[in-house]
Amino acid sequence: MKKIFYLFSIIFPLFFYSCAKDDDIYLFSYFINNGEDGLHLAYSHDGLNWVALNNGNSYLQPTVGKDKLMRDPSICKGGDGRYHLVFTSSWTDRIIGYTSSKDLINWETQKSIPVMMKEPDAKNCWAPELFFDKKQSLYYIFWATTIPGKHSPIEDSETEKGLNHRIYYVTTKDFNDFSDTKLFFNPDFSVIDASIIYDKDKYIMFLKNENPNPAQKNIRITSTNSLKEGFPIDVSNPITGKYWAEGPSPLKIGDSIYVYFDKYMEHKYGAVRSEDLINWEDVSDKISFPKGTRHGTAFKVKKEVFNKLIEKEK
User: Fold this and answer.
1) Is residue 69 packed enough to be buried (19+ CB in 10 Å), middle (13-18) or exposed (0-12)?
2) How buried is 216 (Cβ within 10 angstroms: 0-12 exposed, 13-18 middle, 19+ buried)?
3) Is the model's pLDDT at 24 over the cut of 50?
4) Inter-CA distances, 271 with 55, 190, 228, 254, 274, Å
């Protein structure tokens, strides 16, 4: 009986893996600690159980920015077939970091994108996100910045005094030439950590209400049929619970959209899922992530890409 159980424990995972469809393999980019050691990746077959790749080691060391950090790594596959990565390079930079790869293993030389250099009072460029709009064959890069006195005031706190973020953006077709920086999302609250997914003919943006007093620190939604027209500033009620959450990362799995987020006060990851974007189920107790996972993005890869990542570990 023990031999049968042992054989089953080996054969079943192999059977599951061999039957998995190409789009059933999910990756998650993330950082640990303060982001000094760079890019980390994890994988999952079901969107619930995530396993660190590369034995938990970094794939890429940060080389740009004031502090040489690689926080909030956002990866998306573009129309050119390459994986493009943007990241927070410092707590106080007016630039964001960028690089690209064809296989998620070998990366091009990192460079700075000077997105807020024309705003001398800008305090930061936090959590840049990438979205490739297939309709326009255009990349959107958007992030949170505080420019003192620029936006409607909020009740601040001693720990976040002077921080009042809004979402800004640039567009590019090739990561060489960029549009002018413009305001992307300007609600009546401090907002950070925006991310976008396209589903059922509309663009859905998840974001964090960052107001500190009274504290919100929760994830909300807004949607649009056209990125050119922008997103309505009237957002949903919180889709997350009584805990503090940030860094929402959406992923379509089957009929559901999962949203992963950093429960940063509890030092662990959480998730909610929904089929209709109205009724949300908290599945935080059903997921597992590598220890120390911080703000990242979830995306799908082909099996051959995943196989190369696995082979690198051998």
Assistant:
1) buried
2) middle
3) yes
4) 24, 22, 30, 16, 10
Among candidate residues 157, 160, 98, 168, the one with its CA nearest the CA of residue 126: 168
Instruction: List the structure tokens of 306.
Output: 């995943």
The neighbour count for residue 121, using CB atoms within 10 Å, is: 11
Q: How many CB atoms neighbour CB 249 within 10 A?
A: 25
Calculate Rg over the CA atoms of the chain.
Answer: 19
**Which tokens in the block code for residue 17?**
């893996």
Q: Could you count the other beta carbons within 10 Å of the beta carbon of residue 100?
A: 18
What average pLDDT score do residues 158-182 get?
94
Q: What would the pLDDT profile of 251-260 be if each residue is shown by its tens digit?
A: 999 999 999 9
Whether the pLDDT of residue 207 is over 60: the answer is: yes
Mean pLDDT of all residues in the chain? 92
- As beta bridge partners, residue 260 has 249, 271
